[in-house]
Specification:
There is one protein chain. This protein has 81 residues and is an alpha+beta fold. The protein has one domain: GIY-YIG endonuclease, CATH 3.40.1440.10. Helices cover 44% and strands 28% of the residues. A 3-stranded antiparallel β-sheet has the order 2-1-3, sandwiched between helices. A hairpin with a 4-residue loop joins strand 1 and strand 2. The radius of gyration is 12 Å and the shape is globular.
Length: 81
């Protein structure tokens, strides 16, 4: 399975990404090896994820959500709570 996720960084900013293993990816982000963006913001926590059967669909969803406003991303994450 493949996942699209939203990570809330320690500075409050949001990061969208995709992965095959959510727990491992979160550990990478928090160890400073996940992405330059998250590393420069001190890590963070996963606040939302969606599961897909293909990498292509997860990447397509990532691209779609990255274009959204911050408010819309937060609303999506809150719907899941």
């Amino acid at each position: 399975m493949f996942y699209f996720y939203i990570l809330k960084c320690k500075d409050g900013s949001l990061y969208c990404g995709s992965t095959e293993d959510l727990k491992h990816r979160e550990k990478l982000h928090n160890s400073g090896r996940g992405s330059k963006y998250v590393r420069s913001r001190g890590g963070g926590a996963m606040i939302y994820s969606e599961r897909f059967r293909s990498r292509h669909k997860a990447l397509r969803r990532e691209t779609e959500v990255k274009r959204w406003s911050r408010a819309k991303k937060i609303a999506l994450a809150q719907m899941n709570e």
